[in-house]
Specification:
By secondary structure, the protein is mainly alpha-helical. It is about 30% helix and about 0% strand. The chain contains 3 helices and no strands. The chain has helices at about 20, 50, 55-75. It is elongated.
Length: about 90
């Protein structure tokens, strides 16, 4: 049996990739079919600054649930015009 020693190749890191200059991404657009993979009711796109404020999906859900509770607590109940009336002016004694 013949033992051959292969040279260990060092990892080559090429920071200047020639393909980066050949590909034009200026006319790139999002894939219109990616929402077909997931339920559209559950997908919402957040702005980058909003997404940066939350570490994960659970934090976003928790914050939105708290906001819904606050909103429902502050929501005014509908009042019928029959049950609420303006104070009637007092009649002057003649």
């Amino acid at each position: 049996m013949k033992k051959t020693v292969m040279k260990k190749r060092s990892d080559i890191v090429d920071d200047d990739d020639p393909l980066d200059h050949e590909i034009d991404f200026s006319k790139a657009r999002p894939n219109p079919f990616w929402l077909g993979v997931v339920d559209r009711k559950c997908v919402r796109l957040l702005a980058a600054d909003v997404a940066a404020a939350f570490p994960n999906d659970a934090a976003v859900n928790e914050a939105l649930r708290e906001l819904m509770q606050i909103k429902s607590a502050q929501a005014r109940k509908k009042v019928s015009a029959r049950t609420v009336s303006a104070p009637s002016p007092k009649k002057a004694k003649s």
